[in-house]
Each structure stands twice: as C-alpha cells, then as structure tokens.
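subagent[fold] <- orchestrator: predict structure for attached chain, return tokens only, no commentary.
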Amino acid sequence: MKKSLIVTATLAALLAACSSTPTAPVQEKAPAQAAAPKSDIAPKPVAVAKTDPFKDADALNKIPLLQKRSIYFDFDSFAIPLDYVSVIEAHSMYLKANANAKVLIQGNTDERGSREYNLALGQKRADAVKNNLKLLGVKEDQVEAVSLGEEKPKATGNDEAAWAENRRADLVYGN
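subagent[fold] -> orchestrator:
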C-alpha cells in the first residue's frame, strides 16, 4: 500500500512538472546569408532514357513481363488473380506505346462443364482481361476477346495440374 502511494505521488509530481503555461510562439530568426560554403563542383546531369522501351520493335521478346502471354484463373472463376495484374499492366503499356499493335485475347477453360458453359466462361475470362486493358488506357480497336472454351487445351490429362494449365486467357499479338 505504501509503495503504491509513493508511485502515485511520483506520477503526480511528474505530471505537474510537465505542465506549462502557454507562451507566445517563438519566432525563428532568418538564417545567415550563407550557412554553408558553396561547392565549386557542379552536379553531374543524370542520364535519362530518350526512348520508350515499349516502343522497341522487339519489346515483346525483350521485356520479361511481355513474354508472359497467359493469364491463369481459379476454377470456375473469371476474376483476374493479383499475380497477373503486373502482366496486364505491362501489356497495356506496350499497346499504348504501339498504336498499330493489336491483340486477340482467347479465353479458355478446362474440360469440366458443358460445352455451352465452357464457352460462356471462356468469354468472361477473355472479357475480363480486355476490360482491364481498356481501364488502363488501351484503345477499344486494339483488343478483341473471343472464347475457345475447352477446344484448345494447353495440357492433356484428367488431373488438377492439367486443368489448371487450361484455365487461362492467352494474349495473341498480330497486325
């Protein structure tokens, strides 16, 4: 009990010591004319790239993100996974820098589901990529979206690994 009274009294004394009456704000004095001596060494200009790397004729083969031409989706989904946002951004930058470039987006599905369902899901996947490119500033006439459904599998097999390879949207460039 005695110890808690001492602690309470000490805290009260510290709080009282910290309180202060308001005073007028302190005005800063203007700094001296030359606080630091001037250097005789002139700063070196920074080299700036004068060309847009996305306008390079071979950019599709040189820039790693542009070499990725497939966007993979989760089962029964057409939501673009966050892992592929940077890929879509890179393709949008390329298409904006090259107004004559055109891309065909082919939506694909695995073999599960009816033909009609897979065609509809493939179209939704292709449209999702197309809409993202348009939101990033790509012109409508540069992008076309089609569904191939289950007709163009990348992998054969009846297991999850094969199905995962087939749930995708491919970006196919042409003129």
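orchestrator: received. Logging for downstream: The two ends are 87 Å apart (CA to CA). Residues 11-15 have pLDDT under 50 and may be disordered.
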